[in-house]
Amino acid sequence: MRIFVPLLALAATLLLPACTAQESFQNAENCVKVKTGMTEQQVRGIMGAPTGEDLAGTTGKTWSYQFGSATDTQPIRIQFDADGKVASATCAPEASGSERPTGN
Known about the structure:
Elements: H1 4-31, H2 40-47, E1 52-55, E2 61-68, E3 73-80, E4 86-90
Antiparallel strand pairs: 1-2, 2-3, 3-4
């Protein structure tokens, strides 16, 4: 049992970057599905919970999602207007979903 715990911790450490790359790829793939006028609930259904939220005063907010590798990240940004509808979506350059991020 003593050796099992360190091996489990090592396995989790090695698999964590793979999960991050997969999530990053899914964010890129899903970002192109977000359209102007969608509600926050619709975006959450497509993209999941944002990794960051920036309140832009009373005019709306911006949700961000990570894209890239552990050393080269750039956020995907979904901007909402004051009514909570998508005003714009800024997807990563590779957000066509055809190319997986590397470097993790």
